[in-house]
Write a structure and sequence with these properties.
By secondary structure, this protein is α+β, with helices and mostly antiparallel strands. The strands form 2 sheets. A 7-stranded antiparallel β-sheet has the order 3-4-5-9-8-7-6, with helices on both faces. Strands 1-2-10 form a 3-stranded antiparallel β-sheet. The longest helix is centred in the middle third of the chain and has 17 residues. The protein is 19% helix and 29% strand. The chain has 5 helices and 10 strands; from the N terminus they run E-E-H-E-E-E-H-E-E-E-E-H-E-H-H.
Length: 299
């Protein structure tokens, strides 16, 4: 049981002393069941408990098939490089972790789960997302359009605002292939990588995939820009939620997956996935040769 006296959700004396923050207990979390084109996705997560009460959660109606009954919605302006992609938000929650004796929120963990697809007029023709090579191609297009188009400005326009995928890892605990990886935010200094989106993806139909996204926000740093507290409770909650994810394919989806498997044989994703070349919309200027420099100086 949480000690509300020692760990109240208050910040009356801001301190960056080393501590072990306290957040929600996974043992008291409940299950969320999501129906997706006849398949059942389940995940266990604590109730929504953000630092700011105005941060709203997203949750779906129990028993409603989200792919059959919902249309893809457009991303907010500027999020994507184009208007080819849409999403169906399924679940979004946020959890705050507090230091002892009213020292405030030290960090937060965010979770979002959504279905991703392309609008009909931009659909990839004659391919199935259940084909692992096709899925990797689809993922490259999505990551380029979601992250690759953002860059810094003026003389730094060749520097992307994101870097990834990093720490690519294939998983085998679902009845379909899946992978996790990180997309880092990147500063004007190319070596400054922070606050990664930690993504887990897998196909759910021949034209849709599920994206599970975790993000850890840290609010207490030392002079070396390192967290002043033990971040393991945040990571532990993330790991517990991730390990709870299960998927049961519906009959039609299983048949479609088995058909692709009979055609391609190897249903494994590539073991390695190198970071993509970003930004996709701006290229660095060509280097000026020594002879060109002399000609310019003499003109």
């Amino acid at each position: 049981m949480r000690n509300w006296i020692k760990y109240p959700p208050l910040e009356w004396r801001k301190r960056n002393d080393n501590c072990v923050p306290l957040g929600p207990r996974f043992s008291s979390a409940s299950w969320a069941s999501l129906l997706l084109a006849g398949s059942s996705l389940r995940v266990k997560a604590p109730r929504h408990c953000p630092r700011r009460s105005k941060v709203e959660q997203v949750h779906v109606f129990p028993g409603r098939d989200e792919i059959y009954s919902s249309n893809l919605i457009h991303y907010s302006m500027g999020v994507m490089a184009n208007d080819h992609w849409g999403c169906i938000p399924l679940l979004a929650r946020r959890w705050a972790f507090y230091g002892p004796w009213m020292t405030g929120c030290k960090g937060e963990l965010s979770l979002s789960i959504s279905v991703i697809g392309r609008f009909d007029e931009y659909a990839f023709q004659n391919i199935s997302f259940f084909n692992p090579r096709a899925f990797e191609m689809v993922l490259v297009h999505y990551l380029n359009d979601r992250y690759g188009h953002e860059n810094w400005e003026n003389e730094l326009s060749h520097i992307p605002r994101h870097h990834g995928p990093v720490d690519w890892l294939c998983h085998h605990h679902l009845p379909v292939f899946s992978a996790s990886f990180k997309i880092y935010n990147r500063g004007e200094d190319p070596n400054y990588l922070v606050l990664p989106d930690q993504l887990f993806v897998f196909p759910i139909t021949e034209h849709h995939f599920v994206k599970v996204s975790f993000r850890q926000d840290i609010y207490s740093f030392d002079k070396n820009n390192k967290p002043t507290f033990d971040t393991s409770p945040i990571q532990e909650l993330q790991d517990n939620i991730f390990n709870s994810i299960s998927l049961e394919l519906g009959p039609e989806t299983q048949a479609a997956y088995d058909k692709v498997k009979a055609e391609v044989g190897d249903m494994r994703l590539s073991e390695e996935f190198a970071p993509l070349k970003w930004p996709t919309n701006v290229y660095p200027p060509e280097p000026v040769s020594e002879m060109q420099q002399r000609l310019r100086a003499g003109s």
